[in-house]
Amino acid sequence: MSHVELDHLAALALDPADADPGVRRHVESCEECSALLAALSDVRRLAGAAPLVPAPARVREQVLAHVREPSTGDAEGAGGVPEPLPISGRGGSTAPGKRRGIPLWVAGLAAAVALLAGLGIGRMAGGGTEEAPEAVDPGTVVAAADLTALDSDASRGEASAVRTDDVVTVRVSASDLGDQAGVHEVWLINVDGERMVSIGLLASGDDGEFEIPMGLIEEGYRIVDISVEPDDGDPTHSGVSLARGELA
Amino acid sequence: MSRTAFPTRRPQRYGGAVVTGAREFEDGQDDVLSVASRLVAGDEAALEEIYDRWSALVHTFALRALQDAHDAEDVTQQVFVAAWRSRHTLTPSPAALPAWLIGIARHKVADVRAARARDAQRVAAVASLPDAPGAAGQQSDDQGVAERLVVRQAVDELADPRRTILFLAFWEERSHTEIAETVGLPLGTVKSHVRRGLIQLHQTLEGVRRESR
Fold this sequence. Notes:
The structure holds two protein chains of two kinds. By secondary structure, chain A is an alpha+beta fold. Chain A folds into two domains: 6-46, no CATH class; 102-246, Immunoglobulin-like, CATH 2.60.40. Chain A has helices at 6-14, 21-29, 31-46, 57-68, 104-108, 110-125, 214-219; strands at 140-148, 155-164, 167-174, 183-190, 196-201, 207-213, 221-229, 241-246. In chain A, strand 1 and strand 2 form a beta hairpin. In chain A, helix 1 crosses helix 3 (31-46) and helix 2 (21-29) crosses helix 3. Chain A starts with 5 loop residues before the first helix and ends with a strand. In chain B, helix 2 packs antiparallel against helix 3 (69-85) and helix 3 (69-85) packs across helix 4 (96-124). The two termini of chain B are 32 Å apart. The interface between A and B is large, with 69 and 70 residues.
């Protein structure tokens, strides 16, 4: 017998006596359906909470007053562009805290990265749609990358770098990142396979723009990496990369 | 710094079985997605909308968890200010927004409890007080409270007649036959509303649970 329809499970959860014997037999022998039945019964038990209690109006005023004051600590969100994480001294020896730690997996990936980079360039030469990265006039595309999965060559979208003076805007247009729970964070991995820096989060869908200093690109931070980050407060890379490609 | 200093992570927790069945996307979900995206983009009006829709949930949660009106107000204010300041950490999705707010609220509640515990210790001036008595139990109680409130809000937001039918069925424990008489709909229609409503509540709750992991 195929699985029981949700509607029948709901009926069973609401009134066991009312249910079709065939449905009940299936549920008894099917782990998936019995788990779903348990979840539905659980919801029925959770129903019954007293009405929500609105907060006094003054709380709303206070929240808005806090938000509107041109305060410290809120500059990062202006314009919706994620703030580039502190990068000064990232490659040196003075950066504080555990962000300095270099994940073992990054070092171990150096060889794989080099291989991927080669593949990426090959694909570009083979008819990529981005413009050739010759000119360095303000506002032009100076580099582009095809993003692919790590365990296959499946396409995961593309990234480009647009330069304006000494600022590079990295545009990421990812696709098929899957539905693992968590936020998608964008990193630049140095081609030396030893260093990396977070440049922000894909806040809205799979597309995002991130401003970075040109110096980073020149230092070799050219491999765009998209990770999925669980909400655990750990600022380091989760080790789960969904897409990667080298800006070239 | 040597590489061995790299902090180890807990094992991956995502990718677990997600049982949702055929999902019914209600109109409200698009609205949530849109208001969440606008918040991330820095739109203050979006924060106001989010406050208006979820502040009662956050406030009630804080009230139940802390049993103090003043602390609950403080927490509610802190949650929405914190939500604004860390809005770029939110990935917009219908369930992510309430899950995110509840997550922030739980942290703020924990902060208040920690402060209370410190005060209590100071007052008691006893060296051997056990650490945070019952913290684990409190945590799971909090989750139960939060989930009941999420369900309550989900029912509040249903369209009639389903909303009224579910209140009569689940809150007033009325029989389907009584409900059919009260609302003037055929028994079969009432039963169908109750079943579909239960499934909707389940899906809302699953979404919030999934995003809270």
